[in-house]
Amino acid sequence: MNNLIGILGGMGPGATVDAMQKLINNTPANKDQDHIPTIAVSIPDIPDRTQCILNHGASPLDKMVQYMKILENAGAECIIIPCNTAHFWFDELKKRTHVEMISIIDTTCQLIKQQHLHAVGLLATTATCKAKIYQDNLSALGIACQIPDDTAQQAVMESIYAYKAGRIADAHRLLAPVRDRLLDAGVEKLILGCTELPLILQQDMASAPEHYIDATDALIKKTVEWYFAHSPRHPSHQGTPHHPIAA
Predict the structure, then answer these.
(1) Are 241 and 35 in contact (CB under 8 A)?
(2) Disulfide engineering: 58 pairs with which of 34, 36, 47, 241, CB 3.0-4.6 Å?
(3) pTM higher than 0.90 for the full model?
(4) Long-range contacts formed by 206-215: CB under 8 A, 24+ apart
(5) CA angle 110–111–114, rounded 5-degree value
(6) CA atoms within 13 A on the CB side of 246
(7) pLDDT of residue 109
């Protein structure tokens, strides 16, 4: 299978499914055979990334490498990781593989640059914020990045864990005020820099898409671009994105 895309998932499982659905939605396809060949590993026993970075918890690196090897052995030629905090280990993971990898962080920052934004807000895990995974990249591009204060950031984490636990209404209730305060502070757009956040704010994004940069969506669009750059004769290359309907 040529140009097989590998998804290193499980961080969390819902975010993995969201990435796969976005891959389908952004693929120009008229029939099953037009879709991008994909293999996903969603084994959720990878240790908590935030606990490792902030509290010296168990490292997720060995598990990520182990599951990345499953993708490699299955023939993946490009691997993506729909988890922002996991990109703390992105450079180390790249050293452990011989296939291409696309960074959700680099892709999202380049999108922000292309949109000529000067000041953005960041909603993400506390580890992503504290490690400055986005801020350092954006600063190098001359873009200011504002994060929530400590109290608000705690609410963001509670929201993320509430979603992971299936408490979707609680997740939204906790996150919405933090989102509103950042927008009121004058940022141009908000980076949804944790892959659970587009799921928590799904309805809000539909009603006011101009407020958001969905990092998962940016990663997937770059992945589709990579695939077609390596598959120029794909039959649907000149088509339009697929929007699923009932079979």
Answers:
(1) no
(2) 47
(3) yes
(4) 211/183, 213/108, 213/111, 213/112, 213/120, 213/189, 215/84, 215/104, 215/105, 215/107, 215/108, 215/191
(5) 90
(6) 0
(7) 98
Instruction: Tell me the pLDDT tens digit for each residue of 146-194.
Output: 999 999 999 999 999 999 999 999 999 999 999 999 999 999 999 999 9
Catalytic positions, please?
83, 194
CA distance 118 to 23: 29
List Cβ<8 Å contacts ≥24 apart for 158-164: 159/200, 160/125, 160/194, 160/196, 160/197, 160/200, 163/14, 163/196, 163/199, 163/200, 164/12, 164/14, 164/196
What single-letter amino acid sits at 145? C
